Amino acid sequence: MTHLYRKIFTTVLSQIFGSLLILGASLSIYAKPEMKPLPANIAEIGSAYYSFKVKKFTTTDQNKTYRVWLGIPKTVQKTQNAYASVFMLDGNAAMSHLKEEILKSLYENDAPVLVAIGYKTNLPFATAFRSLDYTPADLLTGKPAQDPRNPERMSGGSADFRNVILKDIAPWVERNVKLDAQKRALWGHSYGGLFVLDSLLDGRYFSHFFAASPSLSWADERMMQKIRTVKLVKEPQKHVWLMEGDLLTHSGTQQSANFDANGINKNREILSIFDQQGIESKFWWCIKKYAKKKQVEF
Q: What is the pTM of this model?
């Protein structure tokens, strides 16, 4: 996941805020996540450009504890204008790939506020929790149920997780720094990409939505079904980016069992639906061929 997170994360920042970042690093959507304990991240090491605060949020049933990192540019003064922001899912993994050179580039340009939403774990991913938090509920019952990809885990808790963000995490962030309501971005990958799209349908709080390789085939294309039937909230103006990696299996790598060969067509359908409803949307296809990388936008 290392190259994926670094490339898409920097792409997000450069697209929303025009930061002059080097995208570098190859993109592979097939790599299995490394579930090794994480080393100290930039918040623990310290940065010359950003100050970090860390806060834990525990659900009322005491079942989950979220660890949230808030990165504030050191240029911020309480009397200054509102700042753009990026809320990142899989915060543990995101923080592990946030390096000082990226923060330096941000600091010298638009310097957005960074909010990484993770879990109380020393691993990059809390797989059982993210399965529940990032996925939409059953369309018939409206309730959580077993994850069809892994029955040992629960799924369908995105509404509850969104309430944690909107009622607990976001207010804490805004008590520390003023955010620009027209530049509040949400980024997520895979199941996190589903949560990003589900939050777009919800329509509250965020203005920019970055869904990286969303798991559109999950649960009999549940998210596709929602997108086809739900009328989008257009005000305030929404901006959507869909991102995918190379459709070809790279040499020496094993394709994921959940890889969706029809993903590009699904993304095109989503773009068409959004366009018909007046939602600004773009598709980024990161292609790797002959050791060269390019991005195709349409």
A: 0.85
